[in-house]
Amino acid sequence: MMLSFFDQFMSPVYLGIPLIALALTLPWLLFPTPTTRWLNNRLLTLQNWFIGRLTRELFLPVNLPGHKWAVLLASLMLFLISLNMLGLLPYTFTPTTQLSLNMGLAFPLWMATVIIGMRNQPTEALGHLLPEGTPTLLIPVLIIIETISLFIRPLALGVRLTANLTAGHLLIQLIATAATVLLPLMPTVAIITATILFLLTLLEVAVAMIQAYVFVLLLTLYLQENV
């Protein structure tokens, strides 16, 4: 039976039960749990340092009221990194290649930042739709353009994460298939192809972490505009 390259992105179903819920739950079990001891082990210390450093970098330009989002956005970033990294393992499913999931994460958080801006500082929030010093004739056009760009933000968040991960997985599968087919025919070319595959896998590990960071970073920038 011939399978399509895109079959790997289908949500797995077992006995009629979608396993995407299991794929979303398991990453939380991999994190070491905090202890009541005065001294933590090396893994927990490294995890705490990593979370603290990234949270500090993310919220450095954000005003103090926006720091209430630190726990939520730091948890979201760890969650996305875990899903993206686990999806690189063989015979696994990557939930973040599903646009519906990414939009489900991006749209409510983006909408929350907009609502906060409209509630706390409505004048400044609406002022973003019209840059200062705009000619009178261009005011209606710029308001429409800025409004469209505002509503495109959650779509861009979801599509960016989905497209980057999907493209990486497809490229890995294509090169792996080529290496397997070329091995009995041209072993030297197959070894070169396998080396490229190894380097691409390392690149995809970096992309998996960077895309999760960019997703949360853009949400932080949207929050910065509204607090």
From TrEMBL:
Gene of this entry: ATP6
Quaternary structure, from the entry: Component of the ATP synthase complex composed at least of ATP5F1A/subunit alpha, ATP5F1B/subunit beta, ATP5MC1/subunit c (homooctomer), MT-ATP6/subunit a, MT-ATP8/subunit 8, ATP5ME/subunit e, ATP5MF/subunit f, ATP5MG/subunit g, ATP5MK/subunit k, ATP5MJ/subunit j, ATP5F1C/subunit gamma, ATP5F1D/subunit delta, ATP5F1E/subunit epsilon, ATP5PF/subunit F6, ATP5PB/subunit b, ATP5PD/subunit d, ATP5PO/subunit OSCP.
Pfam family, one: ATP-synt_A
Membrane topology according to the record: Multi-pass membrane protein
Species the sequence originates in: Cubiceps squamiceps
Family: Belongs to the ATPase A chain family.
The name this protein goes by in its record: ATP synthase subunit a
Family matches, as NCBIfam families: ATP_synt_6_or_A (TIGR01131)
Substrates-to-products reaction catalysed: H(+)(in) = H(+)(out)
GO molecular function, one term: proton-transporting ATP synthase activity, rotational mechanism
PANTHER family: ATP SYNTHASE SUBUNIT A
GO cellular component, one term: mitochondrial inner membrane
